[in-house]
Amino acid sequence: MKNLDVPTIAATAIVSLLTGYFIGKSVVSKETHEQVKESLSEDNNEEEEEEELDPLPEAKIDAKNYDNFKLTLVVRSDLGMTKGKIAAQCGHATLACYKAVKIVNPEILKAWEYSGQAKVALKCDSEDKLLELQAIALSLGLPAQTIQDAGRTQIAAGSRTVLGVGPG
């Protein structure tokens, strides 16, 4: 058996590692690009997004006349949700409001994003109150989305857990 010197072994190892790295990165990059492209084509269907949302306001607020935009999350306190459940439901409400305002009033969305995406959490004690607040918000031209629980954990299926209002 021939003795190979250390620099030759080290150089061979480095070249092998770099070759494997770049080949692997190229394969993963192409797969990831295709997955992202496929996902975007599915997600860009605005009609599908509108079907998932509650009714949208007909009036449009002029973002230039206001500042200090906030997204308000109204949580039902009568359901006895844990803090984790509340956090998850608020996340759903935030996303629903984001989708709604993106369709209805993208200028307000930009202003809210630019101003730091402020959020306010409030509570109410009944579904009736939640629906009343939603109707008021819609009448003022604000997106207002309720979240209905799927019923897989703590809450009965179809229960409205959180109302997101805004941003506005």
TrEMBL record:
Give the enzyme class.
hydrolase
Identify the domain of life: Eukaryota
Q: Which GO terms describe its cellular component?
A: cytosol
Segments of this protein annotated with the region Disordered: 34-58
Q: Which SUPFAM superfamilies match?
A: Peptidyl-tRNA hydrolase II (SSF102462)
The answer to whether keyword NAD applies is: no
Recorded family membership: Belongs to the PTH2 family.
**Identification of the protein by name:** peptidyl-tRNA hydrolase
Q: Which source organism?
A: Rhizopus delemar (strain RA 99-880 / ATCC MYA-4621 / FGSC 9543 / NRRL 43880) (Mucormycosis agent)
The organism's lineage is: Eukaryota, Fungi, Fungi incertae sedis, Mucoromycota, Mucoromycotina
